[in-house]
From TrEMBL:
GO biological process, one term: peptide catabolic process
GO cellular component terms given for this protein: cytoplasm; extracellular space; membrane
GO molecular function, one term: metalloaminopeptidase activity
Protein name in UniProt: PSA aminopeptidase
PANTHER family assigned: PROTEASE M1 ZINC METALLOPROTEASE, PUROMYCIN-SENSITIVE AMINOPEPTIDASE-RELATED
Pfam families: ERAP1_C
Stretches assigned to the ERAP1-like C-terminal domain: 2-229
NADP as UniProt keyword: no
Family in the record: Belongs to the peptidase M1 family.
Entry keywords, A to Z: Aminopeptidase, Hydrolase, Protease
Designated gene of the protein: Npepps
Superkingdom per UniProt: Eukaryota
InterPro entries: ERAP1-like_C_dom (IPR024571), Peptidase_M1_aminopeptidases (IPR050344)
Length: 230
């Protein structure tokens, strides 16, 4: 109804606030998706910082309940929920989540304590979103060293979280490099487009500037339509 302009978005936010004690992954996934769309729309306004505060407020109680480590007897949906919530809090700049993500990332890179598969994406996206050129270099090094394609893809999808314009350009150049399989290039560009307002503009310009190469690469396949959609 809000998307159709029938009710105010404020009403939607009020309803969202009522879900703070919700334990279900599917519900949180939907809330996260809708808040992501709202944050994208608000990234062009003065309300972007406010929506980040709102995200931190809504997601922090469930984040504190879940913690960082699996509890005995929890199901796979709890693990999915933990990854979703920590990633959302980390991207929104929740201080405790950011500090813990940085600590665990450092241990992971140094080989002291390897991150479990379900925590890698939220940790990677958090440190990148609030990281610098050395963070990106470390991530690209992890990509190069990864034995499994699954880990390479996981890293490719989150690289676009980086915020600085010159680093966004580095990620876009990386997307067309030989380091990335042609079928995975779209994931890297899509990650940039979804990462930030600056990323969206940069990705759009990059696609236009490299249109001939991209079109020749994918012809009329589904990947070209996916690229345009993102």
């Amino acid at each position: 109804q809000a998307r159709a302009g029938i009710i105010s978005t404020v009403e939607v936010l009020k309803v969202m606030e009522a879900f703070v004690n919700e334990p279900n992954y599917t519900v949180w996934s939907d809330l996260s998706c809708n808040l992501g769309i709202l944050a994208t729309l608000l990234s062009h306004t003065d309300f972007y910082d406010d929506i980040q505060v709102f995200i931190r407020d809504v997601f922090s109680p469930i984040g504190e309940r879940l913690g960082w480590d699996p509890k005995p007897g929890e199901g796979h949906l709890d693990a999915l929920l933990r990854g979703l919530v920590l990633g959302k809090l980390g991207k929104a700049g929740h201080k405790a989540t950011l500090e813990e993500a940085r600590r665990r990332f450092k241990d992971h890179v140094e080989g002291k304590h390897i991150l479990s598969a379900d925590l890698r994406s939220p940790v990677y996206v958090t440190v990148l979103k609030h990281g610098d050129s050395s963070t990106l270099d470390t991530m690209l090094k992890l990509h190069k060293q990864a034995d499994m394609q699954e880990e390479k893809n996981r890293i490719e999808r989150v690289l676009g979280a980086i915020s600085q314009p010159e680093l966004i350009q580095k990620v876009l150049s990386f997307a067309l490099s030989e380091e990335v399989r042609p079928q995975d290039t779209v994931s890297v560009i899509g990650g940039v487009a979804g990462g930030s307002r600056q990323g969206r503009k940069a990705a759009w310009k990059f696609v236009r500037d490299n249109w001939e190469e991209l079109y020749n690469r994918y012809q009329g396949g589904f990947l070209i339509s996916r690229l345009i959609k993102v």
